[in-house]
Amino acid sequence: MAYRLANELSVSEERLDDEEEREAVFYRLEMLGYRVGQGLVERFSRDRPRFTDTLDVIKFLCKDLWMLVFRKQIDNLKTNHRADTSELPGATFQIKTVAARA
């Protein structure tokens, strides 16, 4: 799989000039990363009871999954008062969740 991805990403310099091609490659790579992350979460949360609220999801991500993926504890976690947006300082991304409305 890695070999196939490397071949697909080794687009010639002429094709990289085309902004649409570049965006398509980045989109595919982002979706691949999303799917890998989703698979990890599904695999490691399989034997757990279903998460009932957003806070349970954030706790799982920050305590259990983070340790499995990065082999270290998360340094810091900030949430707003409603806990619907969480930020992991030092990371190059934000985890944004939408709480399910019952």
Question: Could you walk me through the main structural features you see in this protein, from its secondary elements to its overall organization?
Answer:
The chain is mainly alpha-helical and 102 residues long. It has 2 domains: 44 residues; 52 residues, no CATH class. The chain is 54% helix and 8% strand. The chain contains 4 helices and 3 strands, in the order H-H-H-H-E-E-E. A 3-stranded antiparallel β-sheet has the order 1-2-3, with no helix packed on it. 1% of the residues are buried.
First-to-last CA distance? 40 Å
Strand content: 5-15%
Query: What is the total tally of β strands?
Result: 3
Number of alpha- plus pi-helical segments: 4
Give the structural class.
mainly alpha
Radius of gyration over C-alpha positions, nearest whole angstrom: 17 Å
Secondary structure layout:
Elements: H1 2-9, H2 13-16, H3 19-44, H4 54-70, E1 78-79, E2 85-87, E3 94-96
Antiparallel strand pairs: 1-2, 2-3
Brief summary of the model shown:
With 102 residues, this protein is mainly alpha-helical. The chain is built from 4 helices and 3 strands; from the N terminus they run H-H-H-H-E-E-E.
